[in-house]
Amino acid sequence: MSNPASPPAFGVLDQGPELTFPPGFLWGAATAAYQIEGAATEDGRTPSIWDTFSHTEGRTVAGHTGDVACDHYHRMPGDVRLMAELGLKSYRFSVSWPRVQPGGTGAANQAGLDFYRRVVDELLAHDIEPWLTLYHWDLPQPLEDAGGWPARDTAGRFADYAQLVADALGDRVRYWTTLNEPWCSAFLGYGSGVHAPGRRDGGDAVRAGHHLMLGHGLAVQALRASRPDAQLGITLNLYPVTPASDAAEDVDAARRIDGLANRFFLDPVLRGSYPADLRADLRQVSDFGHVREGDLKIISSPLNVLGINYYSRHVVAAPAEGAEPEAYWRSPSCWPGSEDVRFVSRGVPVTDMDWEIDAPGLVETLERVHRDYTDLPLYITENGSAFVDAVVDGQVDDPDRLAYFDAHLRAAHVAISAGVPLKGYFAWSLMDNFEWAWGYTKRFGMVYVDYDSQARIPKSSATWYADVIRRNGLAAQ
């Protein structure tokens, strides 16, 4: 947690001269399977929880689904050529579990694996390092029907699936992420219900979070046994959590939210334990009876890298009578045991998601993880912003997104200069896509997607990012 002080200029770190990143710094961009692939029923793919959720009335904006998305399943070679034109050194993509293992159990679907074989081969042919994420939220629906992530058995099924993918791609993929943002899977999917599968139970959310991490640990062990040279990690979405004032009540509110947002995952994965204060905060929704002997040793299996997704800061205050928390990630059911903590808006610039722009918070987050938790190489596996974009004369100018990237990359350089072992950066996202419950109404991409024609138009931020990669640094301000 940080002190309740506001940065002098939100989203901006003035560093003056040109900044050069270390040799070999890995420049990339990221996507997720359900958000871009489409082909929802082709070649043996079966429904995931996001297919079911998006096809349920009232769950997504305007009933949008990922049935077609960016049609990447059919347009992948062209998309990889576009990555090469931008100069990407790495591409972080996720594998669709129900495309590879329909139903979540049993033999692999070779047609599904063949698609990812083609993805990897295409990337390597263009000298782009594949960075594979095994789980970006698309749990096979039959596993949800059997209990989902709150059920312990799902962790074992995930390890089996990881082994199938490793058997097919492990000879050509060096970097592996087990889970993307387990906080979202657990607390948005099973707590607030604003993400798939749309359940609302604090105890289920806590159990889901634990079993996600158990599945991570089991998958790491399986991958390590079969591919000892693989670079294995997990990606966590982390936030600096700031009390709204120095008052003891606000400081305690920040402690509680920091526990749920950050330490719930950092401590088991990197320390092999749950914080005592977090367990006390959650005692009304969980007695942690689902945690069995040996679980935390599995969860804390040694890693090679740690991925960090960073978007914004949480500023919180103690409960106030009659105060209602805001929607989405600030909704009370996202925070079991701390539902009455208030999230405070500071009146600073925000993105189209209403997320405050706070580049200095990235420095705080990276320094904290390195100082308090690990010497592992760190990678920013997602960082980006949604803004309203428009095509004018066949071009898309997005100065706000460009400025967001610039500020956060300058923050990343500050962290490196302070000794943080930051080794790479993945912009979110390569292209506009299905933004979960927001459907196609929010655009994060560096590449504009016309969803009617499926035309791709690189935005000005893409051109700028290509220049950053080419020079391995940032121009002077």
UniProtKB/TrEMBL annotation:
Active site, renumbered: E181, E382
Transmembrane segments: none
GO biological process, one term: cellulose catabolic process
A Pfam family that the UniProt record links to this protein: Glyco_hydro_1
Gene Ontology molecular functions: beta-glucosidase activity
Cellular compartments per GO CC: cytosol
Record keywords, A-Z: Carbohydrate metabolism, Cellulose degradation, Glycosidase, Hydrolase, Polysaccharide degradation
Ribosomal protein in keyword set: no
Protein origin, superkingdom: Bacteria
Binding site for substrate: Q35, H136, N180, Y311, W428, E435, W436
EC nos: 3.2.1.21
Catalytic activities: Hydrolysis of terminal, non-reducing beta-D-glucosyl residues with release of beta-D-glucose
Alphabetical list of InterPro entries matching this protein: GH (IPR017853), GH_1_N_CS (IPR033132), Glyco_hydro_1 (IPR001360), Glyco_hydro_1_beta-glucosidase (IPR017736)
Main EC class the enzyme belongs to: hydrolase
Protein family membership: Belongs to the glycosyl hydrolase 1 family.
The protein's name: Beta-glucosidase
